[in-house]
Amino acid sequence: MSGKVVENSGETIPFATVIIEKTGLSVISDENGNYILKNVPSGKHTLKISAMGFAVQKKQIEVSGNLDVSIKMEGELQELESVTVLGRSQTDKVNKQSYSVTAIDARKLHNSTLDLSHALDRVSGVRNREAGGVGSRSELSINGFSGNQIKVFIDGVPMDNFGSSFQMNNIPINLADRVEVYKGVVPIWLGGDALGGAINIVTNSKPRTFVDASYSFGSFNTHRSSINAGYTAKSGFTTEINAFQNYSDNNYWVNVDVADLNTGAYFPNQRVRRFHDKYRNETVIVNVGVTGKKYADKLMIGFTGGENQADIQTGARMVSVFGKIYRKGSIVMPTLKYQVKDLFTKGLNVNVTGNYNFGYEQNIDTVFRRYNWFGDYKQYEGAGGERSRTLRKFYNNNGIATANATYTLNDRHSFMVNNTFNTFDRKESDELVPESLVYKQPKKTQKNVLGLGYKLDYNDKWSTSVFLKDYSLKTTYSRSYNPSGATGDIAYQKYVDHTSTTGYGAATSYYLKRNLQIKASYEKTYRLPSPEEIFGNVNDNLEGNLALKPESSNNYNVGASYQTSFSEKNALSFDVNLLHRNAVDFIRPTLNNNQTMTTNVNQGKVTNYGIDGEVRYSYSNRFTAGFNATYQNIRNKTMYEPNQNYVSPFYNDRIPNMPYLFGNADATMFFNNVWKKGNNLSVGYNLLYVHTYYLSWPSMGSKDSKLEIPQQFSHDLNAVYTMANGKYNIALECKNLLDNKLYDNFSLQKPSRAFYIKLRYYFSKSNN
After folding, report:
1. Phi, psi of 493 (to 5 degrees)
2. What Pfam families is this protein classified in (predicted)?
3. pLDDT score of 435
């Protein structure tokens, strides 16, 4: 007997359990939902099918010969499509990894207005830190490490060179099928030099014909739309398109101190609207190729194009306010993807990718004015700017090539090699100063990370991986000097720096019981400075630092997960992760001298002891609730600052501007067959909490004079109505329900209360 296990929508269900009751016969469907049962006795039988996230199905069959039985399963938690239910992966392939990994089933969030970064903000150990509203500069933090210390991938391809038009906080959640969060230790098949973890956005790459289109509108004149569609012919010809758009005035309310530009009169704690913060972006991704061929399971040639424009309302802190500065950028990226299984010999799988971004970034500051938060301004004579008069434009000419090969010797032993190469060559110009030598200086890097690994699996209970990584970086730049000593005599000298080092690690897991898994992992990892950290990025208020050194860390993780159920309808799950980080030459952002921009510096030594965990409860398909919490004790262990002979006054201080205690709680009710069979309603609530933390070093200044980022609570509500088993969907959301003051980074205030509505249409046809 054979067949396929699918959802009502036609999507295949991998790793479903198929049992013929009272015979002892059972099998697990493969990654494409196919199953085969041999030696089935003739006669009448009861077929029982189960899969995580789906209601158990029973089907009566009669066997008198070869039989084809395909099963459609009802999504037990189908109503969760707009609800944040975050936990371990739905598939054994991710769930059984030895690494400390949390996976989000993004399909359950496709009806929400969340982008990828805000979906991740609800995972234990993860914080999304942003400078404002839609399209603002943002970065993810995992267990105290943040920014470039966290690497982001799409289907295993690094996003290092995607530019400002393709960021985590403007990518709609509908682009992803699953999002994997690796904490601390990163497997080598995700090639790169992450210091504190990685995010892998997994898209649905199965051959299929589908359309997923949505549009949302909300407060602050915010519009978001996306369309994902694909077609696969029986011949294997495949085409895919993903397109999305974001627009917002971002004119939300903020509380600030304001001074009159003419009289100097002071108006503390004024509630005003942001007035110069519009953002828009449009992006399209097109792939064309073939799938399911002997020479290629997938061979796709693609193109990613897009542009964005963003007003710049503030500097690194809200004491600086602008009214005319803006930035814009583009992405122009051809891509190649090639995957083949059993190349030359059974068990050898190869995956090769390549892309090159020809896009640009530009900062425009040509209006010689000074603004305050009332929108008043003072005009000055002559040529100047609000911060630094410029039309600076640069092309980063950034390319990435990856190659990954896995050889599975047998059920127990497998080997892997991965290589990731990144090239960067910035070309700059400014039409205001076309002859300036500053913009003609070389700014180049070439980075390569090579990884080798071995994995042992034993009896489906014990799994262990060991790996080795080689890092290398070549940086080409110049420094100015005065050859004659005369005023204005400036020349430049070219430098080429080489850096190389080796890291290593291991990860293991063991199932004490079927539902109780323990894990441990360790990595000696390095993170090479990024081109933006070295050379700067005016568009992101970032000043470069040519003296940055690579940072390294010893990362330790110990964790456990446990699932149980009782009274048939009640289910509980527990996850906990203990961590230790011991970093050297830790790179962290700090304010520059005039506090209008940030720059990155090496902190010396930093340690972090922490714990994060999650508890989740569900009752049948009617109710689910859970909470997670994270505590991270990240401390400065640099005893002597450079060129100092005395102990640093900040020794053993918490690293400033970094939240150390935060968490989430959520609850959702589900109502089935509302008004019509197949139509479902869910009503959900989410709470985000962040504890008070200092903006600067805790040992600096008196208690009353210290700047701090206050305790924060954010309450969100949502309601989703799905019709025709999820084909048509309507979602209503309220974010920051109580209009609380929310802050991040250097006390940059985030949006006030907002309301949104989202309409979504989904159709899918499975390609057998």
Report:
1. -120, 130
2. CarbopepD_reg_2, Plug, TonB_dep_Rec_b-barrel
3. 86
